[in-house]
Amino acid sequence: MINNLRLPDILINPMQITFRRKSCKGLAFEGLVNWQGYSGRNYPLSKERLEDFVLLEQNIYIIVAKELTCWVGTANDLVNNELSRSRFREAIKIADCVFCFKDNSDEMSRMNIAWDIEGGFLSKNPYKSTYSGAKTAALKLLA
């Protein structure tokens, strides 16, 4: 149970947590952005609307202020971890934007990805899927 969070700031149902905010200082990004993790791995992140984003259970969220990571976590982190809730509340006060990484892996993989993303940065290069690049290279070899 999330304590010390007032409605309508946080609306809770079993499948999602919705955050509502009156104003947004969002950065103007369209489509996927490229976040380079601490390990060097690139992550395709979608930008969420700061004023009313929804935390879904299977996704990882990144709250950013001035292109610095303020909070990385999942909806489960807010429900089960008091320290994470506290960091989330502080991060949302200064946030410029929120990004989402859609992930369907197990809990341990999500923790590793969250750690990698937290130590990373927003890359100025557009996101390019490594899969499509490998697929293109393979097709050139077959031709």
Q: Any overview of this molecule?
A:
The structure is a single chain. The protein has 143 residues and is α+β, with helices and mostly antiparallel strands. The protein has one domain. It has helices at 75-80, 82-94, 107-118, 130-142; strands at 10-13, 16-19, 32-36, 42-48, 54-56, 59-65, 68-73, 97-102, 121-122. Strands 7-6-8-4-3-9 form a six-stranded antiparallel β-sheet, with helices on both faces. The protein starts with 9 loop residues before the first strand and ends with a helix.
Layout of SSEs?
Blueprint: E1 10-13, E2 16-19, E3 32-36, E4 42-48, E5 54-56, E6 59-65, E7 68-73, H1 75-80, H2 82-94, E8 97-102, H3 107-118, E9 121-122, H4 130-142
Antiparallel strand pairs: 1-2, 2-5, 3-4, 3-9, 4-8, 6-7, 6-8
Quick overview of this protein structure:
The protein is of the alpha+beta class and 143 residues long. Helix content is 31%, strand content 31%.
Structural class estimated from helices and strands? alpha+beta
Amount of helix: 25-40%
* Spatial separation of the terminal alpha carbons: 57 Å
Q: Report the β-strand fraction as a percent range.
A: 25-35%
> Uncertain regions: pLDDT < 50 for 5+ in a row?
1-16, 18-29, 131-139
Instruction: Characterize the largest beta sheet: strand count, sense, and whether it forms a barrel.
Output: 6 strands, antiparallel
How many β-strands, per DSSP?
A: 9
* Strand order, sheet with most strands: 7-6-8-4-3-9
Elements, N to C (H/E): EEEEEEEHHEHEH
